[in-house]
Design a protein that fits this description.
Helices cover 31% and strands 30% of the residues. It is α+β, with helices and mostly antiparallel strands. Helix 1 crosses helix 2 (28-39).
Length: 338
């Protein structure tokens, strides 16, 4: 049974999704979300979807998502590897290994600096040079603690209207993210597709209880927040939060407003996915908000290119991994889609 490996071709998305659904057992609604996120990914290229075919049918696949992130003042390219799977009828024949080998080959060939993935089977990916590191998803705290925050500086809260506010969002995020290790670089293509990909709460994920808020100080938009509550969970998740320099108090105001809104609908726990080295955390601790880092297994990283290490201040790949992922306070990477 011969396996042929190549890039996804035009008209094959349905075949890829059929294999994906069989491999992961996802429902049709979740499959629609996967389709939408790929179709609306501003950096999507069929070449980065590696597929294995038997008799013309896609039986195995791996997806490489193109991203970029800050490591200090350096911008590194990141290959987010996801959807690595083989159809159940074709498993245990080495097909997944061969497709993954092809994906890693392309990552190195295209000169990516880092490759990252999340998995429940780290032993499989260790064969390709990936190293398991602590997965820090964010910080957890009681919703009531956020709802009771004291914010001395006045800040008006507005409902976020993406069509009207997106230039302000882009400007705020640009200033907030620069130089913050772990924050993604977002260009105009990212902002143009943000609502359609579901990363903005009023995108296609309409089944979520979600909201977007803007913070206004002296007539200027200085902060924004996106938050949601997953179905059936008494939990508030802050998926995006950014603010202009010296406007941390506006960020606190938005956190308080979101907490008060979701507390009314029964949310008891909050997860803050702020990413980077967020300066809000010390301010929250000053107000005795009990923060607990959400750390667990499942994140793996591969230093695919060493050229960026010395400019970023690292002598070796191992030193970079220790500093970025295994330090006493690991970086909270702002991941989008992987």
């Amino acid at each position: 049974m011969a396996l042929r490996i190549r890039a996804l071709q035009r008209g094959e998305l349905d075949g890829f999704l059929t294999c994906f659904q069989a491999a992961f057992g996802v429902e049709d609604q979740s499959l629609a979300i996967i389709r939408n996120s790929l179709v609306n990914d501003p950096y999507f290229q069929p070449e980065r979807v590696r597929v294995g075919l038997v008799d013309g049918i896609i039986v195995s696949h791996a997806v490489i998502l193109h991203r970029a992130a800050y490591v200090g003042s350096q911008v590194v390219t990141v290959a987010g590897i996801t959807a690595v799977a083989t159809h159940p009828h074709y498993q245990r024949r080495g097909f997944g290994t061969r497709v993954m080998q092809d994906a890693v080959r392309l990552v190195r060939q295209r000169g990516y600096d880092l490759a990252m993935l999340t998995t429940r089977v780290p032993g499989f990916f260790a064969h390709f040079g990936f190293k398991e590191v602590p997965k820090v998803d964010g910080h957890a705290c009681p919703v009531t603690a956020l709802a009771g925050l004291s914010v001395p500086e006045p800040c008006t809260v507005e409902k976020l209207d993406y069509e009207h506010h997106w230039p302000a969002l882009a400007a705020i995020y640009h200033q907030y993210s620069q130089g913050r290790t772990g924050m993604q670089v977002r260009d105009m293509r990212a902002w143009e597709t943000w609502p359609r990909r579901g990363t903005f709460p009023h995108g296609f994920s309409s089944h979520l209880d979600a909201c977007g808020l803007m913070g206004v100080v002296k007539g200027q938009h200085v902060a924004y927040l996106a938050a949601e509550s997953p179905p059936g969970q008494q939990q508030l998740t802050v998926t995006d939060l950014a603010y202009l320099p010296r406007c941390e108090q506006a960020g606190l105001t938005l956190l308080r407003a979101a907490a008060q809104r979701f507390r009314e609908s029964g949310a008891a726990r909050a997860i803050l996915h702020m990413g980077g080295e967020a300066s809000l955390l010390p301010l929250l601790e000053q107000q005795r908000v009990p923060l607990q880092a959400e750390v667990g297994p499942g994140l793996m990283v591969l230093i695919a290119n060493s050229v960026w290490l010395r400019p970023a201040g690292f002598r070796s790949a191992d030193e970079a991994i220790e500093h970025l992922f295994r330090s006493p306070v690991p970086v909270v990477w702002h991941r989008d889609g992987y």
